[in-house]
Amino acid sequence: MTPQSILQARATPQARAIRLGPRSVAALALVSAIGLAAFTWPLFSGPTSQVSAHAQDAPWLFAGLLVLLVGVVGAAVSESGIGAKAVAMLGVLAATGAALRPIGAGTAGIEPMFFLMVLSGRVLGPGFGFVLGAVTMFASALLTGGVGPWMPFQMLSMGWFAMGAGLLPGPDRLRGRAELLMLAAYGFVAAFAYGTLMNLAGWPFMNALTSSVAFNPDADVTTNLTRFLAYCLATSLGWDLGRAAITVALTLTLGPTILKALRRATRRAAFETAVTFEHPRTQQP
Predict the structure, then answer these.
(1) Main-chain phi, psi angles of 8, to 5 degrees
(2) What is the pLDDT of residue 1?
């Protein structure tokens, strides 16, 4: 007896990044624009502005950042169909990253959490990476007692750090040694970029009379950028080099294992499961 032909749905999960839709892109662009303005506006404010008032903006920036992060997550949920599984993975990775931060305690730039952000952003995509970076930095600040006016700037910088890994080319074609080398190179450069941004967050509030590399509100943009470069070379070059070196070392040594684990977890979670319909094979009596 031949059974009747019926339609069946079969899920085919794949280890692919969580995609960005138009609303997700708009939310990320908005939070990035606001963050960039928060970092750089003292450079363009003019000599008559009250630059020191910027120090009082951190609580408002923090509150606004939380709202925008919720907006990014909401846009990703509505456009990509992700739900509890993605939120659970976000929590696990953020907790892991926060736990890694106190290991080095920032000594000589030894901060192992950065390599995990690179690998997570690579596997799960730029939108997920941005939220993960910001949430991880928030959780680690609570864990280490590093809460202060610098925290929203750290959240933004780490969000961009992880998001950049998700924007790297060739996620479907570039694998193996070539992928590891690309991620290591990105981690090296991005580690310096993170340190530069954090320098920029605090540098405008140095007293210009105490140092020739301090921010001078009476100088033009070119002069202040020259001072800022000298400030970075004099104060944080060694620290940033240590962060970059440990990120590269951990990416090259632990990267294959972590990437495999993240891709396996993503495949099993099937955030955006593709559903196909087909007829079963006809069985002969």
Answers:
(1) -130, 145
(2) 41
Write the CB contacts of 243 (distance below 8 Å, at least 6 apart in sequence). Answer: 109, 110, 111, 114, 191, 194, 195
- Where do we find the tokens 């605090």? 202
Distance CA 253, CA 159 (A): 24
Give the burial class of 55: count Cβ atoms within 10 A of its Cβ; 0-12 exposed, 13-18 middle, 19 or more buried: exposed
Helix %, strand %, coil % of the chain (to 5): 70, 5, 25
pTM score of the predicted model: 0.79
Spatial neighbors of 43 by CB under 8 A, at least 6 apart, are 204, 221, 224, 225
- Cβ contacts of 248 within 8 Å, gap of 6 or more: 184, 187, 188
Q: In angstroms, rounded to a whole number, what is the distance separating the alpha carbons of residues 180 and 188? A: 12
Phi, psi of 219 (to 5 degrees): -90, 165
Q: What domains can you pick out in the chain, each with its CATH number? A: 10-270 (1.10.1760.20)
Exposed/middle/buried for 257, CB within 10 Å: 0-12, 13-18, 19+?
exposed
Reduced to 3 states, what is the DSSP secondary structure of residue 34?
helix
Token reading at 147? 């809460």
SS (H, E, C) 138-192: HHHHHHHCCCCCCHHHHHHHHHHHHHHHHCCCCCCCCCCHHHHHHHHHHHHHHHH
- pLDDT tens sequence across 160-206: 999 999 888 876 677 788 899 999 999 999 999 999 999 988 888 77
Q: Give Cβ neighbours of residue 133 (< 8 Å, ≥ 6 apart).
A: 117, 121, 155, 158, 159, 160, 161, 162, 163
Q: Give CA–CA dist 161/117, Å, rounded.
A: 8
